[in-house]
Amino acid sequence: MEILNADQAAIEKAARILRDGGLVAMPTETVYGLAANAQNERSVARIFEAKGRPRFNPLIVHIPDVAAAEQLAVFNDTAHQLAESFWPGPLTLVLPRKADCGLSELVTAGLSTVALRVPGHPTAQALLRAAGIPVAAPSANKSGHISPTTSTHVADDLDGRIDMILDSGPCNVGVESTVVTFANDEKNTPVLLRPGGVTPHHIQTATGLQLRRPKNTTNDTAPTSPGQLTSHYAPNARLRLNVSQPEPGEALLAFGPELPPHCGPMINLSARGDLQEAAANLFAALRDLDQHGCSSIAAMKIPKIGLGIAINDRLLRAAAPNISDDQK
Ligand code: TXA
Ligand code: MG
Question: CB atoms < 10 A from the CB of 136, how many?
Answer without folding.
Answer: 30
